[in-house]
Amino acid sequence: MFPIHKDYLKLKNNPLKGCFHGLFISSIFVLFLIVKNIILGWKPINFHLGVLWIGVFMVGILEEIPFRGVLLQSLSPHMKFWAANLLTTVIFIMLHMPTWTFSNINILQAIKSTLIFSMALGYLFKEYDSLWVPIICHSVFNLCIWIGLA
Fold this sequence. Notes:
This protein is mainly alpha-helical.
């Protein structure tokens, strides 16, 4: 069974530093999206998300704990990091497929962007040794998609 313990999840590894790095990296991402929208033309941004505002942070937590916090760490001792990260990413993508199928979106584009995003989250988790970095980055990424900035 997976040894799920608060120390194993790396939520206590420098939480303030992890949150700072997550916010810093997310800020760079948001600035990139703003510049992209200035160059390519603005799409309407919808800040009226209603109850989805609660989900912004919850989705980051509820997806990062099982994927980066448990699965990636459980696979890493048995294979090279990048193989474990890729396998975690493939499973992450497969679990998102039903939502994409019923959402009438471009599935190939969703797979491509999620592949890059998930691999980056795994790398950030490894690099900063804190689950807070991918949690915050994931939450900000979802927020940017939901409001129409991405």
